[in-house]
Amino acid sequence: MMMVELGVSSPLAAVVAVLGLEWSYTLRNVVAGAAVLGVVGGVLGSFATLRRQSLLGDTLAHAALPGVCIAYIITGSRESLPLMIGAGLSGLVGTLFYLLITRTTRIKDDAGLGIVLSTGFGLGLLLLTYVQNTGGSGQSGLDRFLFGQAASLVRNDVITMSILGAIALATVVLLFKEFKLLSFDPDFAASIGYPTTMLTILITALLIVAVVIGLQAVGVILVVAILIAPASAARQWTDQLSTMLVLSGLFGAVSGAIGAILSSQITDLPTGPAVVLIATTLTAISLLAAPRRGLLWAAISRRRHRQRVQLASILHDLADAAAGEAGAVIPLTDLQAKRGVPGRLMTRQLAMLASRGLVARSINGREGWSLTAAGAEATAEASRRERVWKQYMARQMDLPVDAIHYDATEIERVLPPEALAMIEAELRAEDAAAIGRASDVVAGPPRRPSRPTARPGQAP
Amino acid sequence: MSTVQTSDLGVIPATLVESQRRRSAAPTGDETVATGPPPVEIRDLTVAYHERPVLWDVDLTVRPGKLTAIVGPNGAGKSTLIKAALGLVPVAAGWVKIFGEPFAEQRRLVAYIPQRGSVDWDFPTDALDVVTMGRYGTLGWFRRPGKRERQIAMDKLRQVGMADFARRQISELSGGQQQRVFLARALAQEADLYFMDEPFAGVDATTERAIVELLQELRSQGKTVVAVHHDLNTVDDYFDDVALLNVRLVAYGPVDDVFTHANLHATYGGRIGFLSGGPAETSAAVAD
Ligand SMILES: Nc1ncnc2c1ncn2[C@@H]1O[C@H](COP(=O)(O)OP(=O)(O)O)[C@@H](O)[C@H]1O
Ligand SMILES: [Mg+2]
């Protein structure tokens, strides 16, 4: 109700005006209704996806169809409240049936859902045909429950949806901690005394409420998208459950509102597909562009990583070629021969290192490069990290040290502190032993030889 | 009944309830623990999934203040035994008592670490948040964890060497680090009896040592630990007692007495050489 008066009107009215549409009574209802179903669907869909139960949402929706028809047959009313109650009850029966067959027989979860979904939908279509044949075709208007028709929402429908939605959201806020633990670790939740069966039934009942709210506007076939898509999109942007719920509700509301406006303007475009298209677009953008989890991000960080490794290799090559002589100038052609990379790429990478003050260029007849003091230090530090990493990997995986290559720059992030301290102590001992052996001329390599060429960092 | 129990705690100060419970379990402190009711007493326990028995007529009385290993091949019912003790799976016959009472009345004395693979580590939460879940049992309905709970959780993270990772998303932790987080959550439960399902599975060598040290610390505080263990080579190093399980309880007692070749053979059948990584190691593990 508040949604209708305050929440939606002003900013969206502006958008609508810009689009050259009339902010009419119908449009306002449609947008408010779709936004409500988006919020509720987004929030409860988050729990459903995290609990790997999004298929349950789809099943519920399909199982709700017979209830809609039966409610219509009994009451003969097109009011949404009795139809919603019918839908909810029949969704509940479907869920109980699903629980019954998966818990008492060997039928697996997915098969159980499939059985309930197809049975419910089949029964629903049968009843729908019956209703339409007896009441004159299209009389009942029940076919809007298949693909959704937000334009058919009246003010009372929106109020009913808002009340149901508010109850569902309030329950989530109140039981946030309990629902979180139930979703993350149900066994642990049960062990500390949470009535997990009751909580599961409750969270499923709320999912039914979300579905019921969406049925008239989005339809039984597509309502599942409003449960899954906003939640998947939201997960991309955050690692906190509470933030995910808020974002998912927001994405759901935006998809609902825009989808409803689109379908009201384009003839014959049902609301369901329109909402789903918007929600899916949001999801696609999120999968692509979200920081850290997004595909673009992954590609960029892969590129950065490759570049970091290449830059480090050049530094190592310079240090190796200098063989301990500070500031030794190595001809560019030598470096290129060693790396086997195109000349232009190497020049660019050298320039990058030079801009960080790690290498210096000198032209003395032909082009050559040398490590600066800072560059030598950085290389030594990198060698140290790499040694620690290799030692760690060798111990953990029982691989020969030489077989291990890994970017060691983030070693402190990966290794537990005591492991780091221990390995460093070991390496110091190994170094000390090597110095001892060096004096009586090494007879053979140490047990797990590291690289034969000494690097500046290892020099005593 | 558990509902009533937890919601009670919202009204009565948690610390008071806790001290009362502790007193009823161990009336006069540490010395009486040995003579009081056993931490875990299992009688004639049979558990079946869809009529197929997974545990058959198991009798087991765990000694207080000891580290007890449960070993047995895959599918032997080790996890199920723990779950049955915690009332997580329906029992077909027999009963379990925890410190002399049904588990439902002793929850607060018991901590539980499920198998690491049983949860989704991509769940949107961080290490500190997971450890805080160890306090949910004492929090009561509707109440959100506050400063006190986070403080305890942070202490426990420190205890397992994970203080620097408190705000790290749990999917970004290594297997060993995830196991440490689970361990910290169990510590946050501040229990007297700890059930751990494969705490050493898939962890790095350093974490394994850290966990062993923690177990020994728990034992020195008089706590009892029952852990499913998969590595036969370390049973005698890490544990006092061992239960050899394969649907039936093959043997149970101090490691020195019952961890014999004959018992291992009875538990694992012909698979023993394969499971423990080669004949040499097997004989080393079983040598007397
Ligand atoms: N929820 C379940 N439903 C049906 N069978 C199960 C279930 N949980 C475990 N089982 C079966 O019970 C047996 C024992 O499982 P479990 O206790 O997990 O063994 P362990 O932990 O010793 O590997 C296995 O054969 C397993 O397949
Ligand atoms: Mg198991």
Task: Tell me about this structure.
The complex is a heterodimer of chains A (460) and B (288). With 460 residues, chain A is mainly alpha-helical. In chain A, 73% of the residues lie in helices and 3% in strands. Chain A folds into two domains: 292 residues, Orthogonal Bundle (ABC transporter involved in vitamin B12 uptake, BtuC); 161 residues, Winged helix-like DNA-binding domain superfamily/Winged helix DNA-binding domain (Arc Repressor Mutant, subunit A), CATH 1.10.10. Chain A has 20 helices and three strands. In chain A, strand 2 and strand 3 form a beta hairpin. In chain A, helix 4 packs across helix 11. Chain B is α/β, with parallel strands linked by helices and 288 residues long. The longest helix of chain B is centred in the last third of the chain and has 16 residues. Chain B is globular. The N terminus and C terminus of chain B are likely disordered. The interface between A and B is large, with 38 and 45 residues. The structure holds adenosine-5'-diphosphate and magnesium ion (MG). The site of adenosine-5'-diphosphate has 10 residues of chain B, from helix 4. Magnesium ion (MG) binds next to helix 4 of chain B.
Task: Give the helices and strands, then pairings.
The complex is a heterodimer of chains A (460) and B (288).
Chain A: H1 2-7, H2 9-18, H3 25-50, H4 54-75, H5 80-104, H6 109-134, H7 144-147, H8 155-174, H9 176-184, H10 186-191, H11 196-218, H12 223-237, H13 241-265, H14 271-289, H15 295-322, E1 330-331, H16 332-339, H17 343-355, E2 359-364, E3 366-371, H18 373-397, H19 411-414, H20 417-439
Helix pairs in contact in A: 3-4, 3-8, 3-11, 3-12, 3-13, 4-5, 4-6, 4-11, 4-12, 5-6, 5-11, 8-11, 11-12, 12-13, 12-14, 13-14, 15-18, 18-20
Chain B: H1 2-11, H2 14-25, H3 30-33, E1 40-49, E2 52-62, E3 67-71, H4 78-85, E4 93-98, E5 110-113, H5 127-132, H6 136-139, H7 147-159, H8 175-188, E6 193-197, H9 205-220, E7 224-228, H10 235-238, E8 241-246, E9 248-254, H11 255-258, H12 261-268, H13 272-275, H14 279-286
Parallel strand pairs in B: 3-7, 3-8, 5-6, 6-7
Antiparallel strand pairs in B: 1-2, 1-4, 8-9
Helix pairs in contact in B: 7-8
The complex binds adenosine-5'-diphosphate and magnesium ion.
